[in-house]
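Practice set, problem 2.
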Amino acid sequence: MGKLFGTDGIRGIANETLDCRLAYRTGLSAALCLRDSCGRKPVVVIGKDTRISSDLLECAVTAGLCAGGADVIQLGVISTPAVAYLTVLNTADAGVVISASHNPYQYNGIKMFSAEGFKLSDALEDEIERRILAEGELPVETGGGIGQVLDGRHCSEPYIRHLTSSVRTEITDLRVLFDCANGAASKTARRIFSRYNIDAAYINDQPNGVNVNAGCGSTHLEMLSERVVSGCYDLGLAFDGDADRCLAVDERGREVDGDRIMAICASSLREQGKLKNNGFVATVMSNLGLRKYAEREGMELLCAPVGDRNVRELMQEKGMALGGEQSGHIIFLDRMPTGDGQLTALEFLQIACRAGTSVSRLAATVPQYPQVLRNVAAPAANERKKAVLDHPAVRAAVEAGEAELNGDGRVLVRASGTEALIRVMVEAGTQEQAEKIAAKIAESVENAQNQI
């Protein structure tokens, strides 16, 4: 992995670590690489989320793309998966999203998709990064070689039609509360879910540039949970800032995470004869209960490294159509090239209607081990994170934790690919045991940083 591109593109604090100069050089470098590979003027679609810095970064990336000779279709505020889909639909050479997903508004990012709607290959990311970081000015086009900007805001409707065309079961007779996280779903959720005979209400769908993910959405379910219970809704569904995640809460206000949503979807697909290769893909962070469920139901569960890109690549390698992450990135590869929160919501609503039972009972079919996640501040540089993870004291703490669990649980310590954090995850038979082991390992991580 390079200096700029993490597991989900380039991320940083807007106008600090991610400024207009970097955004411009990213657009210019991408245009030059695309032009070299396709031998003509490339076409790039670009979308953004609702954070206050998205406009300026979109302008800077667009300027770089045009300077490098690419034509740009600006989609406006739209979800990340919509950009992936519309890249393919418009036969564009690449797609760009200006978003920092679930992070606070101060952060932003630049994520790129290939012509197939997938994340860029490592080789192409490396080449773009090499040009961004090169000394001096990059070459630009002149005259007729300069790119133009086209208005693509009307393209959201074909995306919505594509999502709703996948609905095969009548969605009816439910009371549903949607949390749009003051993000990209604010622009499309009503247009999607109002097509069905449900009593739908929406919260956090009034973005103002600084309220995206602020105490709301899939990373902050407290408000949704409270209002589902107080409003007597059948369930709540929450998206994140760029609407590629979806999590649910049941009628009692309890979280239904991505693991349980995946398991429920896998069982539903198998009943319909649509679960390819009788399995699905999760990540190493998925709960041990998900593995137990798959074993019990006779389904194959494969685990990829964290990151929806890693999930999708393993899905393609093993010929599976369903995969995702505990955080709510769920990929239905037959319908979308990347995780799509609003598609996941439609799938889950169909299952809830067919089941004829409460969401709490649906979720209860999938066991969950108590899981504790500790985020420990760490150096931003990947090599420094690795040095911390390799420290003898950290290794010893992990081994001691695993010995205490004695097979009835697990420990996972990893460096975040998008933030200056080391994540310590422990699953155990009891919450108390998980918290105790996680605290000891987190302490070893903190101490190790003072010794390297």
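Problem 2, part (b): a different protein.
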Amino acid sequence: MRACITLATVLASAMAFAEDPKAKSAQPAEQESRFLSKIRQVSFGLPRAGEGYFSPDGQWIVYQAYPVGYPFYQIYVQRLDERTPRRVSPGRGRTTCSFFSMDGKSILFASGHTDPDTEQTELKARELAAQGGRRRYQWDFDRHMDIYVCDFNGTGLRRLTDAPGYDAEGSYSSDGRHIVFTSTRDGDPDLYIMRADGSHVRQLTNTDGYDGGPFFSPDNRWVIFRSDRKKEHMLQLYAISVDGKHEVQLTDNLNQVNWCPYFHPSGKYLIWSGADYARGPRGATFNLFTMEISSSADSFSGGKVTQITFDKSADVLPVFSPDGTRLMWTSTRTEGGSSQLWIADWLRAKSKPASSTK
């Protein structure tokens, strides 16, 4: 049995964000300037792009984007100092959740290209888009989705999972030895850990409701993730030790959707996206927040929460560069309102990255 450690009071019932009173009357750009500088768009030329991650050397990014004329995301790599993306995924079916290997030589992602009814699936998606214009973002637990790895240039595609059901949302440990991911192989979306070659799969969570979006802590002792186990669709943040013995709930406000948590490489805080759903999803705005954290082998706790972005557009899926000096996220703050990748210099004082546990 897991020892479930519930964090009694991380956030007040109304999510009392640590915010400078003077900032409430400031314009979004002025408020964000306390944390971010040189905010700029980095993905171009594709109708919609998002969920980007840095290469280990910080010079490349990998992300998902809609190809022109195709209804599902594919995976692209791009140099940060260029604007030309290069596709590395097969080009058919739903594709998502990419991540660089720790040596930068290969790319992890999930794909449903083995769906025997791919043509019919694509046709339905095109018909839906034609009826309602641009489709709103929705998550599909495609039962044909499996986790793959390919070489940096898109060749050498290798399948890592083949269990029935959805396998996706994978990411590497900082030493590159393990992958944590989400799977419905037991009938419910739970977290699993496997070796980098796909062997020795073990279940990490086993609770009703969706557990997903997992990432290892920089010291590889913990995994952070999102879950709607308390109320369907109302995602909250959790952390669980890699042995599954200790679990901590980090947010607990069912009027607030909190998701896509990501560690700063220092291991001292995490960042995520949250929105107030007290009046429902219509009009809810996702912004970015940080939470101070402290952890040991058997304990994990959260502290001060600070709001980072204030734009009226949606800001989601934030990630830090490996050296912790830049922040990249997905935003609809583009002129046309499409989701694209944005990047900024991270103004918080640099901290020495936590060492990996070998």
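Answer key, part (b): Residues 118-132 form the longest helix (15 residues). The chain has a mean pLDDT of 89.
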